[in-house]
UniProtKB/TrEMBL annotation:
InterPro entries: HTH_Psq, SEC_C_motif. Residues 283-326 form the HTH psq-type domain. This is Helix-turn-helix domain-containing protein. Gene3D superfamilies: 3.10.450.50. The lineage of its organism: Bacteria, Bacillati, Bacillota, Bacilli, Bacillales.
Length: 343
């Protein structure tokens, strides 16, 4: 066998020069494997968004709630949905996941047995929302928010956290004798705990399998922890903003919670984004939206169009016409909106 020279690529397939990999007699094998696995995480996602770019774009496009998020939340959600899709959905030819397709094409180049064993375990990758219970040297003790199981992850606490009580969303993977997050993770500070508990409420009693099968539903609910308020949203014009304030005031007088009102403002924002309505009287749209919310949520507070017309100072026929338009615009995605409905 031809001798490997120091500056040649290492035959183990790490992509490093031989002198910096297996040819480094001072190198710790565990460190080398960890380095390879970190590179493989990047390689898998690069493969996914190049070889399967069109498929992934179509896959992500079906989740219309992404369009309602601010830029930061949208990027985080696209990353998480992308990883979930790559590892758990049969998006490649032959019913394979994109990750399985990557292994099919590249597994022969992964020569080190420890690296191969670890990456094979990624086939069972499942997203997790974890709550920080304790912090030790270079590891954090979590509790899985869904299954309530204890989880220990190798990671260092940085200035921005996570801190005890915070929630962390990510994809735990096996790396040598420990677990860490796949590429990146998202911290939800403990000040959001009430809203996160609301987001988790519909999934009480579920198992990890739920997260593997219905992660988009969970993520969509979790995105509602970023409370919508008329002031926080960039509206297309002043009349859209004024209508949002009227909706907020009208629902407050009915005793609805802040979370419920946030959800309602989200409906109004979605309608405005899709329709770009011409608004002459904000109260007409506010009355119609409140009637729409009562009708689709089957609320015990349900009232007639005539009563809402009187409440907002408009005619019942105007409420009826605006309601029909809102219903037509939001009808296609009604199931998704109802999944986000606060309990």
């Amino acid at each position: 066998m031809k001798k490997v020279k120091r500056n040649m690529p290492c035959p183990c397939g790490s992509g490093l020069k031989y002198k910096k990999c297996c040819g480094n007699t001072n190198a710790n094998l565990q460190i080398i494997v960890e380095r390879e696995l970190k590179q493989l995480q990047k390689d898998v996602m690069e493969f996914a968004f190049t070889v399967h770019k069109e498929t992934l774009d179509q896959f992500l496009h079906q989740y219309s709630f992404l369009a309602d998020l601010d830029e930061s939340a949208q990027k985080i959600s696209i990353f998480n949905l992308g990883v979930w899709g790559v590892f758990s959905q049969p998006l490649a030819n032959g019913g394979l996941t994109i990750f399985e397709d990557y292994l099919k094409e590249n597994e022969s180049s992964i020569l080190r047995s420890q690296t191969k064993e670890a990456i094979q375990s990624w086939k069972d990758l499942v997203p997790a929302l974890l709550r920080v219970i304790d912090i030790a040297d270079h590891e954090i003790h979590f509790e899985d928010a869904i299954s309530k199981e204890p989880v220990i992850m190798k990671m260092s606490m940085k200035r921005e956290g996570p801190f005890i009580g915070d929630y962390v969303l990510g994809f735990p993977i096996k790396v040598n004798d420990h677990r860490e997050f796949f590429l990146q993770f998202t911290i939800y500070p403990k000040k959001l705990i009430k809203k996160i508990e609301w987001a988790l409420k519909p999934f009480s009693g579920e198992t990890k399998q739920f997260m593997k099968e219905k992660f988009p539903q969970f993520l969509m609910n979790l995105c509602q922890t970023n409370e919508r308020s008329p002031k926080a949203i960039e509206w297309a014009n002043e009349m859209e903003k004024e209508t949002a304030h009227v909706i907020e005031k009208g629902l407050l007088t009915e005793g609805h919670s802040e979370v419920f009102i946030s959800w309602a403002i989200g409906l109004w924002q979605s309608y405005c984004t899709k329709k770009s309505p011409i608004i002459k009287k904000a109260e007409a749209f506010a009355a119609a939206l409140e009637y729409f919310i009562n009708s689709v949520s089957k609320s015990e507070r349900s009232v007639s169009q005539a009563k809402l017309a009187k409440k907002y100072g408009v005619s019942a026929s105007t409420v009826s016409n605006r309601f029909k338009d809102i219903e037509a615009v939001l009808k296609e995605e009604l199931d998704q909106y109802l999944e986000q409905l606060p309990c």
